[in-house]
Amino acid sequence: xxxxxxxxxxxxxxxxxxxxxxxxxxxxxxxxxxxxxxxxxxxxxxxxxxxxxxxxxxxxxxxxxxxxxxxxxxxxxxxxxxxxxxxxxxxxxxxxxxxxxxxxxxxxxxxxxxxxxxxxxxxxxxxxxxxxxxxxxxxxxxxxxxxxxxxxxxxxxxxxxxxxxxxxxxxxxxxxxxxxxxxxxxxxxxxxxxxxxxxxxxxxxxxxxx
Length: 210
What we know:
7-stranded mixed β-sheet, alpha/beta
């Protein structure tokens, strides 16, 4: 049965083989250098939304974390499962903005990662998505985003998203900003093209009286 076409995944299935090579060639620790201090040293639960080739999920699993890796593109998720077999990783076909499968499970996570995902959602989808993301973060847990800025690759669906907009949406859901850092792309061709990234992180506050 064919996958339902998920808004924002345009172009990824066609380029899956090339993306596997490209993403796996960049160590996860290098890609996430700006947020390493926000990732718990003690084993916990990590939700990796838009897990792609599974590089980051495998990295978290190697550190002892239990990982739920969400990827709606079969052409990425299935090779990722074969490339990174681990009993610590559960692979899930689900997608933003609704995350219907995840939300039905009622789980909460210590860390939620969205790497190169948020800018695929339009403004309305982002407004719908943030409450769903917030509901999946445990109290004092972290939501970590890496948002792309710059020219849109052919065949992709992306939007220019300001850190300020994202911070405001997060604040409305009791997610408090702890990082807003602009960095260069780790890929040379993207740097030349003027691609930059916003590294954003939020911590969910405890409710008063909790």
